[in-house]
User: What shape does this take?
Amino acid sequence: MAYNSLLEVIGGTPSVWLDRMVRARGLEGRILAKLDYLNPGFSKKDRAAKGIIEAAEASGDLAPEQSVVELTSGNMGTGLAIVCGLKGYPFVAVMSRGNSVERARMMAALGAEVVLVDQLPGSVPGQVSGGDLAEVDKVAQRLVAERNAFRADQFNHAGNPNAHFETTAPELWVDSGQTLTAFVDFAGSSGTYAGTIRGLKGFTPDIRGYVVEPEGAAALAGDAVARPDHPIQGGGYAMNDLSFMEGIPVDGYLTVSGDAAKETTRALAREEGIFAGFSAGANIAAALALLEGPERGGTIGVIICDSGLKYLSTDLFE
Assistant: This one.
């Protein structure tokens, strides 16, 4: 089949059963991984980028040829660079220097203007904290005002979770043969979790949803934040006021250490041939832990959030 635009290729990614990993650990149950790293921008954020821009067009919030500005750890920026480029909107991506350089280069190659923001004193490259993100947000707000731009606002725009409600949830449900008993997701903006679990609950109210956070930064779970900086890029910002989580059911919270996320990401590549990033490893580590405990014998859905190609300058695959 031939498509008229790359926009039509976003979503509809395949799903794969991770039976090798489950069997190798002597666990009961199954994990279904939706391969969103196969989206055009190599991440699940393509869905949210398309959802936000098309919702803004429909509402009239985005005018023809108006500039679009957004803060990003790289994935949303890549998705917006693709969507905005194809639709004719100049796009400015604002990103912390703590994120991997591959992301900035990819966004620039796709036509985005990339503005890099220094981390806070004492912050570690590769470990972007909520404080670092706040500095990025300040720059994004200034650029929106200076350029009379549309702010994509992935942490608050309903187009983000709605994209996952409308596409990710039904795809997972159908791909699983309507057998999912749980869904688990590493929280960044929380748009993926909120939209997907809301959609899945519409198919079966008994499905359980679990939120994953970094060890030492489990703000959503209500824990004290002892380590806001961690290597799991793209989420875990130790923010307990994520707007998308209001009224969204959570059946449990899990934490994953940076080391566990790295080890599981590497195992995912070796054992299943899936070359993914840190957050995918966090999702799989959490799903495996659930099969050892409360979801023993169940069927858990997860998202492979982005590609390992975005982390070659980090220590993920050293």
